[in-house]
Amino acid sequence: MQYEQLKNDIFNYQYKGIHIWYLILSTLFYYSAVYAGSETLHYTLYYVIPIIYIVFHYRQAMDLCRICFRNQLKYYIFALVILGIGSIALPLIYGTNDYSYFTIRIIQIGKESVKIIFLLMLYMRHISMNCDVKLFMKYFVLATCLYVLGSCVIICIPGLRDLFLALNKADANTIRLAHKSTYITRFGWCGFSGFTFTLKCSLAAIMMCYIIYQEKLQHFYFNSSLLFICILGNLFYGRIGLVVSGVYFVTLFAMLWKKKEKEMCLRFMRMVCIGTMILALMAVISPKVRSWLYWAFQSFINLLCTGNFETTSAMSLKKMYFIPEIKTFLIGDGKYTLSNGDYYMGTDVGLLRPLLFGGILFQLLRYSTVFVLILQMKEYGKKEQMWMLCSLVFFFLVFEIKGEVIFPVISVLFAIALLLSCHQEVDETR
Known about the structure:
This protein has helices at about 1-10, 20-30, 40-55, 60-70, 75-95, 100-125, 135-155, 160-165, 170-180, 195-215, 220-235, 240-260, 260-285, 285-295, 300-305, 310-320, 325-330, 355-380, 385-400, 405-430; strands at about 15, 20, 185-190, 190. The chain is mainly alpha-helical. The strands form two sheets. Strands 1-2 form a two-stranded antiparallel ribbon. A two-stranded antiparallel sheet has the order 3-4. Strand 1 and strand 2 form a beta hairpin. Helix 3 (about 40-55) crosses helix 6 and helix 5 packs antiparallel against helix 6.
């Protein structure tokens, strides 16, 4: 009886409507780290246990599968299957034996899908039986904020950074970068945190803007704090995310002003002013903070000082753009990485790398996965969600200019699209 009571206390404990056990689990699965010496334990936690759970609750898994095949999500699954087959077939056909697209990207989406389906099934069984999409998004946002706050702790305690570098088996170059003043914030318990992490912070910012717009003054300061922590994550992990999240925030502010929600706008302005003053004070006190802020706002500083908006990373990215040969454009070269691990043709641009590997049809098939998910969310979403879908389109367009966006975050969008479909079916059965 005591065991049952303890289990119920843990599973039912909530803070502001958030189940703490599920939040901890979500954080571990959205931001998974595998440490040296405990690889078996981590892979068991992240993949073996979820697969066992899915198999054990196969009826629920089959119900979710049937829902997918009753709507447009079946095309998302078909596209991934064809991409997987193509990533093996093309190197065979061309004789390149470069299966890195399969081992890097297809395996990545497979692993992420296992984790997200596990989280989704738990959510529907124990957290929200009516498939509350907004609450599911809030868990992703909270997990992201916990990772950003974890970075703050690691940054403030240098010994922790060295410990996590060792646990993550960082190479000499990563260790060198982690101790540079301009890179010191790009670190968390997952190790070096760059493009993928600013992606997730920007996706969380989209969700948080939508939640704030929906809830208005309800939980305003809590919700706004979460939004600003996501933007802080962009300041930590990648400047392109700061630009994207800034556009979301300005759009949200404009929409609230148009709706005559002036009290919310005034509160936002006060919070921005306070945050700016805190950063300015920290910059005056600490040279490291000044160096970090210079890196974060380098494009704006360059614009004011020289009239040029470019940064050093933008200049190096520009060199990675080129027009491939017509044969490569049409059918690809079947190469994704080189034997030494470098990018094929020296480019890390999301618009080019899959194109060089499989050609234009392969690239369009890759983009179709996003297109299908957005269409599915549009079909079951409310009118108020339309600007969120437009934000997602903007999100993918901007980030693809920099690097590959789709597979690191698409599993989260799949869960939202599937949850919307489930919610619709629950409403129809009532």
